[in-house]
Amino acid sequence: MIGTALSDKDQKKILDKLDNTDDPWTCAHGRPTMCHVTSIAQQLKDDDALASHFTAAGDSSDLTQEC
Q1: Count of structural domains, the chain
Q2: What is the pTM (predicted TM-score) of this model?
Q3: 48 with 42: CB under 8 angstroms?
Q4: Distance, CA of 12 to chain centre
Q5: Is residue 3 assigned to a domain?
Q6: Is residue 12 situated within a structural domain?
Q7: Assigned domain for 42 exists
Q8: Higher pLDDT among residues 63 and 1, named by residue
Q9: What is the per-residue pLDDT across 23-61, written as a single tens digit (0 to 9) for each?
């Protein structure tokens, strides 16, 4: 069901199956299956800075970013 959290075991099972495909980076239609985060520490800092900017401005409409 949409929005239902997966257990760690189910997440691993999905990633293992994905790893066994010929092209794990895209779906059969060519859409990306995952986004690469080169530095999680930098991403978290950027997210905090962005959140504080919009929180101070009272607008959180641009907080979501697509890969």
Answers
A1: 1
A2: 0.42
A3: no
A4: 16
A5: no
A6: no
A7: yes
A8: 1
A9: 888 888 989 887 776 777 777 788 888 777 666 555 545
